[in-house]
Design a protein that fits this description.
It is elongated and about 80 Å long. The protein has helices spanning about 10-15, 15-30, 35-40, 45-60, 80-90, 90-120; strands at about 35, 60-65, 70-75. It is mainly alpha-helical. The chain has 2 domains: about 10-80, Arc Repressor Mutant, subunit A, CATH 1.10.10.10; about 85-120. The chain contains 6 helices and 3 strands. Strands 1-3-2 form a 3-stranded antiparallel beta sheet. Strand 2 (about 60-65) and strand 3 (about 70-75) form a beta hairpin.
Length: about 150
């Protein structure tokens, strides 16, 4: 199956980490940002920023405003609603799995506490060594004395 183009929808557009980085910068400011500021703050080359902004613009995630010779970009988060709704559908799944992990950890902690309590808070006593083979008794030895 051929891959969808990056400009087909918000899902494909935000699949690229550098585009998410630009969205983060625009979301933090909440006001229009000049391309040069995006370049500085993202630490990406200007052609890369411009390329990614054109993709974000094509799917409606950013708006561009002209102010004199500057192009200012602002976030339009509306297309992200579909992404948010899809991700939110996994909320119950993660809640259930995280609850199961929490319960397993609590049970393990309780078992460890019970084990420690039965030993009066001391580590388990060492197991006695196995009996050794009998050696010479009463000074008698199997060796003859000269």
């Amino acid at each position: 199956m051929p891959r969808a183009t990056t400009t087909s929808d918000a899902f494909n557009a935000v699949a690229e980490p550098r585009r998410r980085q630009l969205i983060d910068v625009l979301a933090r400011d909440g006001k229009p940002v000049a391309v040069n500021d995006l370049v500085t703050r993202s630490r990406l080359p200007q052609p890369t920023v411009s390329k990614h902004l054109s993709v974000l613009r094509a799917v409606g995630l950013v708006r561009v405003h002209q102010r004199g010779r500057q192009r200012l970009y602002s976030l339009n988060a509306e297309p992200l609603r579909a992404v948010h709704a899809w991700v939110q559908s996994f909320e119950q799944f993660w809640d259930e799995h995280l609850d199961a992990i929490k319960h397993a950890a609590e049970k393990a902690a309780q078992n460890a506490a019970k084990s420690s309590h039965h030993n009066n808070g001391h580590p388990k006593a060492p197991t006695p060594a196995a009996p050794q083979s009998p050696g010479p008794q009463n000074g008698n030895s199997n060796l003859e004395k000269p």
